[in-house]
Amino acid sequence: MLWPANSPDLNPKEHMWDELCRREQQHHPPPTNLGQLLQWLQQEWNGVPRAFICNLIHSMRQRCVQCLAHNGGHTRY
Hints:
The chain is an all-alpha fold. 61% of the residues lie in helices and 0% in strands. The longest helix has 14 residues, at 12-25.
């Protein structure tokens, strides 16, 4: 399968970054320097539930099917 140009839905890293962004929006106070940001990112990355990561892996086939059905466009994932 060719990699569709408009399909971030297929990239599990995009879903991880989305999860981290949601967590960051709930974090108060926000990191004020690069060191704090790095420390926070490492802590949050390690805190992502294993079930979330497993779901990303196990849903890959369905994401591919949806991507093909939408001609490489946006899907619900």
